Amino acid sequence: MKLKKAIILTLGISLLLSGCSSGTSDENAEEVKPVAISVSKVLRTDIQSIKTVIGKVKPSQDISVVAKTPGKVSKIYVEVGQEVKKGDPLLTIEDKDIKLQVEQAKAALNAASANLDRTSGGSMELQLAQLKSTLETTRMAMDNAKTAYENVQKLYENGAASKRELDSAETGYKTALEQYNTAKSAAELTEAKINSESIETVKAQVKQAEVAYEIAKTQLENITLTAPMDGVISKRMVDAGEFVSNAAPAFTLVNVSDAVVEINVTENMINKINVGDKYKVVFKSLDNQEYTGEVISVSPDADPASNTFLIRLAISGEEGKIKGGMLATVSLVEESKKNVMAVAIDCVVEDGGKKAIYLVDGELAVKKDVVTGLSDEELLEVSGDFKEGDTVIFKGQDFVKDGTKVTVIN
Description:
GO terms for molecular function: efflux transmembrane transporter activity. By secondary structure, the protein is α+β, with helices and mostly antiparallel strands. It has helices spanning about 1-20, 25-30, 95-120, 125-155, 165-195, 200-220, 265-270, and strands at about 35-40, 45-65, 70-75, 85, 90-95, 225, 230-235, 245, 250-265, 280-285, 290-300, 310-315, 325-345, 350, 355-360, 365-375, 380-385, 390-395, 405-410.
């Protein structure tokens, strides 16, 4: 800017001196001082018309992490913003009730297997009598456990019993109920076998018990929720002591190793952008640092609300500096031409509604009308009566006209 002002000042002084000199006498009129100018060249080059679009950084991956086993959270291992590796523990579920479920499932399997053995052995009547005795015993135990649970529940509601006592009574009732149901199933199955003399149903019961046992063991194995990938914890939805579901996310995990910028473009631009294209991306919040963004996806459908198309660009070489939510300026190529004539944008002037440039021919400025085309940040496409390599006035063109005597100062 200082250099430009100095050039303009120099040019102004030159014009003033020229004016003064021309007014002294006819002799001095022939000694008009030339106008000082700076020059550049007419180029033949490729040129691109650039359109800038504002976008926002999004993580390349954003995963909701859901617990495989529901239950009460006993421990949380991570905080929001913490980096994790694939397989790192995120939380652990209390295993007391789950272990009990495994034991119950195993007992049911054992009972079903034993029932199959008895059915196959031919002593089904004796087995049925024994099972009915067991059924009556478990029924009484279940009734007693139910009564105890209901009593503790009333005491709890009145503040006379603790939550631990209530949970213990409830577990006792559920265990007795499960044992009763197991005994009832075994008795009914044996009775059915006696009537049908079929073993297939007993085999199916064993298979069902095996599946239930495997499910219970899997739930126990999955009491610790682990990270499914490397990333950063962006959200945590549970705390220790709270119940976690296997239907709602407990954490949100994002991949920050690769930043992605999302932009929206109009229908006029969408067909000019393809996967693999690379564009300049600038982040104002990072001191206008420039990065290269490569198009990784182009939406085939417009957003009905904005009637724009979503474009996603992966940023290379960002080294973790770029954070989610940052704004970026993406320079898109709106149009491009190869091997065209161009000059610096400042070379072109307007005169009487027409555009022109001034060439330098010896010591004289020569005006050439031009037709302009594409432009980028520095160059402007031009066509007219001139050729590549011609010297064109870059500074001082506002102080000359066709035939003005000039001197080059740069």
